[in-house]
Amino acid sequence: MSFHDVFAPLTLDSEPKKYTYQEGADFILTQFSKFSPKMASFAKHAFEQQWIEAEDRDNKRPGGFCTDFPLERESRIFMTYDGAPGTVATLAHELGHAFHSHVIRDEPFENTNYAMNVAETASTFAEMIIADASVKEATTKEEKIVLLEDKIGRSIAFFMDIRARFLFETRFYEARKDGLVSADQLNTLMEEAQREAFKDALSEYHPQFWSSKLHFYIAEVPFYNFPYTFGYLFSLGIYHQALAEGSGYEDKYIALLQDTGAMTTEQLAQKHLNIDLTKPDFWESALEIAVDDVKEFLELTNDLV
Ligand SMILES: [Zn+2]
């Protein structure tokens, strides 16, 4: 398997289900309400007030974006919705960002500016609810395999691809202390980082990756890769707890989001979740979810290989 194969979608005979915008919205509202009625009613408000521009039209790029307007105390979402399960999850992701802004809107202004490592917590949590529910509600085995593969793809991105970027950037800063780093050196650093993060599992790597990845060029935010993996694991762990605790979790979760601009992540986790982030337990329980997906995927695909 080569580096580019990692990003290739899995195609089986059946096409995964498509959701009209209305169906996607209904699915999100139903699934959100299982975890948090407050989150669901907020999302309903965003849909009804038309805070979301989601049209799939020519010359509009894929992906999603959410921005908040603190004075209006509202958010707006700009995205391209094509009906694939992945874009339903993206819509949920952006609604998660908007919900985060919503619950901290009454905090003192200086406490509404939270750090990068918790900026993706609410969004990833919302996305997880939808991605998980889509897999559970898949009606055919093929559909389930495709959806699971999409979910596992995220784990690969967070634990391997983004880890490679982190290793690369760490070593780049070290090398830069001794002078300019040439393109050839950057290629070497990149490939070494990828080999290490992917555990030498691939037949080819992507040494020029550094030249095309936007995040390396945002000079005011160095290490703009680490927060994704941290945020992913942090919200996976929260999701794990939410599944175990049920409906009582909602207020705890909202209180945690409200404090994101006022505390370190270690303090947040200790105060609201009674968790010590400096110990491996919480992180390992988060990883378990990803490992379970892989196990299920292997079982389901056993007779296809
Ligand atoms: Zn996001």
Provide key terms for this protein.
5% strand; 3-stranded mixed β-sheet; 2 domains; mainly alpha; 305 residues; hydrolase; protease; binds zinc ion; metal-binding
Characterise the protein shown here:
With 305 residues, this protein is mostly helical. The chain folds into two domains: 18-137 and 228-304; 143-150 and 164-215, no CATH class. The chain has helices spanning 21-35, 37-48, 85-103, 116-119, 121-136, 141-176, 183-197, 209-212, 226-245, 249-258, 265-273, 280-301, and strands at residues 52-53, 64-69, 74-79. Strands 1-3-2 form a three-stranded mixed beta sheet, covered by helices on one side. Helix 2 (37-48) crosses helix 3 (85-103), helix 3 runs antiparallel to helix 5 (121-136) and helix 5 runs antiparallel to helix 6. The longest helix has 36 residues, at 141-176. The chain is globular and about 55 Å long. The protein binds zinc ion. Zinc ion (ZN) is lined by residues 93, 97, 120, 123.
